[in-house]
Amino acid sequence: MKKTVSVNLGGFVFNIDEDAYKELQVYLSLIESHFAHDHGRQEIIDDIEARIAELFRAKTGTGKQVINIEDVQEVIKTLGKPEEMGEGESSEYEQEEPYTASYRTYRRIYRDPDNRIIGGVCSGLAAYWHFDPLILRIIFIVAFLGFGVGLFIYLILWIVIPEAKTVAQKLEMRGEPVTASNIGKAVRDEFNNFRKNMKF
Amino acid sequence: MNVENAKAQMRKGVLEYCILSILSKNDSYATDIINKLKESKMIVVEGTLYPLLTRQKNAGLLSYRWEESTQGPPRKYYSLTEKGHSFLQELDQSWQDLQEAVESIKKSA
To answer: Model pTM greater than 0.80?
Structure first.
C-alpha cells in the first residue's frame, strides 16, 4: 500500500505516489534554479508544467489512476535534465552584465513562512542576519506595549517585505548560494518536514 | 574541443532557425513543434524548446494566442510576427550563404 498526493499541474488534478511526487518536486525545483536569472522564467516553467500535464494525461485514463515513479522518470527523460535544456538567458537578445563569479550569492530580505508566528517578518529578518527571531519578537512586543508603534512598524514591514515562496528565494533569504545541489537538499528537507508534520 | 560540444553549438543556432521556419508555414502549439523537430531528429529532449520559444517571443519574433482544445486545456498557439518574418528571411539568406561556403571549401580542399 502506498500513500498518494494530489497535485494540480497545468489546471489538472493528478493523483501521484508519494515517492514520485518527491522526484517531480526536485525536478521542477532544479528547472526553476536553472532558469533563475531568466526573464521568462515563470513562463518557461508554466509551459513545461503544461507539457508534463499533457504527458500524464496520456498515461492516465485507460483504467490507470495513479501516476507512479516510473511515469515521472519517463517524463523527465522525455523533457530532459535542466542542463540539457540549453543555457540560461542567452546573450543574443539581451546584453546582460557578464557573470563575475559563476555562483553569485544573492541576499535578499524575505518573510519566512516556515517559521512564522504572525506574518513571518521577524523570522525573515532573523534568517537574513542569522540571529534568533525570539529577540526581535520581544523587541516588537515591547515596542507595541510601551510605545504603541510596534504594530504599525510590523504592519508596514509585512506589506513591503515579500514572502519567500520558492526554494530559491528561501536560500537567498538565508544567504546560501542558489545552486542545484543546495536546491535539491532544501527540497528534500522540506519534504521530510512535511512528512513529519503529517504523522501527527 | 569535444565533438559533442561542437555539435551542440552548431545545432543551437539552426534550431532557432527551424522553429521560425515551422511557424512560418502554420501557427502551431508547442507540442506540434516538438513533434516536427523530433521527426527530423533536431532535438533529443523536449525541454530544449520551451526556453527558446519564450526568448523568441520576448525578442518580439513570435506572438501567441490561447485556443480552446477539444482534448484538454486551452493551448498556446505561436505565430510569427512581422519582425519574425523579416528575421527568418535574413536567416534563410545566411543559411544559403553558409551552405555554399561550406560546399565550396570542401570541394577546394
So the answer is: no
